[in-house]
Write a structure and sequence with these properties.
The chain has 343 residues and is α+β, with helices and mostly antiparallel strands. The chain has three domains: 2-138, Rossmann fold, CATH 3.40.50; 145-163 and 218-340, 2-Layer Sandwich (D-amino Acid Aminotransferase, Chain A, domain 1); 168-215, no CATH class. Helix content is 28%, strand content 25%. The strands form three sheets. Strands 10, 11, 12, 13, 14 and 15 form a six-stranded antiparallel β-sheet that branches. The chain has a five-stranded antiparallel β-sheet with strand order 6-5-9-7-8, covered by helices on one side. Strands 3-2-1-4 form a four-stranded parallel β-sheet, with helices on both faces. Helix 5 crosses helix 6. 46% of the residues are buried.
Length: 343
């Protein structure tokens, strides 16, 4: 089985933001993802971990594309080996024509795994191009991707299904849809990722475009990931998340949650969310960002990430763990392989 691993920021799609004109994406004036060091760091770490995981699987040939400006990183990936001494196939992509290598690899692989930012509609664009090229996606299906890409759609879905999320509204061309005091609220791109473009609403607000206004809830930031298989989601050990960067919203690092109450509350809320998410045709990794308050009734869903997330490196460091279902002990490679072969 041939698996193509595509991480957009490092995989040849770094110049794609230049084609985005909408001002509410926060990348309308950005012509190269390489100007955002946190995305390069997160992307390369995720891709390296994915290569490592799939090299551990039996009878799997790994293909990867890498931006031609990142030759050292590409050589590092190519030097990795599986138990039989086989290396991944690394193809260098011209960032000026990013879809050329991508589409060829999608056609030639049995499955393609996309790790693309939700900024603008880049994730959906990549998914569409893969399918049009004749590829087979291993990841979130269209309905699930929409909830991960469009934050307003996610809030409406949460309202409909009684999933706790922070109070919210919209900002359209500088006009807020809510009458409450905006001080302390967050202003977020409707389609965003990695903390890019998030600001406090008490600072200068954008006067054009559509934005999400969301209350900043107090508590502990936690990520819960799951691997979606034919038998349903297997919830993985939750991770604490640390944020920082220029505005304090960029992912910095993760560590496995060791507080038993936090573990159970994270899994309980995640289980409630997964029970109503449209998962039928989705396979592979999905992540939930949560905030745990002082009490369980103050726990909130913040985002759904319909792709590999930055916490994969931390969770994959566990060679064995007991998943939420309690009925089996396993590891990430086994679960991802089960998703890939349809089990």
């Amino acid at each position: 089985m041939r698996i193509y691993l595509y991480e957009m920021v490092t995989g040849g799609g770094a110049f794609l933001p230049s084609s985005v004109a909408r001002e509410d994406t926060c990348i309308a004036g950005l012509d190269d993802f390489h100007q955002l060091p946190n995305l390069i760091s997160d992307g390369s770490s995720m891709l390296e971990q994915l290569v490592r995981l799939y090299l551990e699987m039996p009878d799997v040939e790994v293909w990867v594309s890498v931006d031609s400006r990142l030759k050292t990183f590409g050589r590092k990936l190519h030097a990795m080996e599986n138990a039989e001494g086989e290396n991944p196939v690394v193809l260098f992509a011209d960032p000026l024509t990013p879809w050329a290598v991508f589409e060829e690899c999608c056609r030639g692989a049995d499955h393609t795994i996309l790790v693309a930012p939700e900024l603008a509609d880049l994730l959906e664009t990549a998914a569409a191009k893969c399918l049009i090229a004749g590829g087979s996606l291993l990841g979130a299906d269209r309905k699930l991707r929409k909830l991960g890409i469009d934050k307003i759609a996610l809030h409406r879905w949460a309202n409909e299904h009684n999933i706790p999320m922070p109070a919210w509204g919209t900002l359209v061309d500088g006009v807020a849809s809510i009458e409450q005091e905006l001080f302390g609220m967050l202003c977020k791109p409707v389609m965003g990722t990695g903390g890019v473009g998030i600001r406090f609403a008490d600072s200068a607000l954008p006067e054009r475009g559509t934005w999400l206004l969301e209350s900043k809830v107090p508590g502990t930031a936690v990520s819960v990931s799951a691997v979606l298989t034919e038998d349903g989601p297997v919830l993985l050990p939750p991770c604490y998340q640390q944020f920082g960067g220029e505005f304090g919203f960029e992912f910095q690092e993760a560590e496995i949650v060791d507080d038993q109450e936090h573990i159970l509350r994270s899994w309980n809320l995640a289980d409630e969310i997964f029970a109503v998410l449209p998962l039928e045709r989705s396979r592979g990794w999905i992540g939930l960002d949560l905030v745990l308050g002082e009490n369980a009734n103050e726990d909130f869903l913040i985002e759904i990430n319909p792709r590999i997330t930055s916490t994969i490196e931390t969770v994959a460091s566990l060679t064995e763990f007991v998943p939420y279902q309690w009925d089996r002990s396993t590891n990430i490679s086994e679960l991802m392989f089960a998703a890939a072969i349809g089990k």
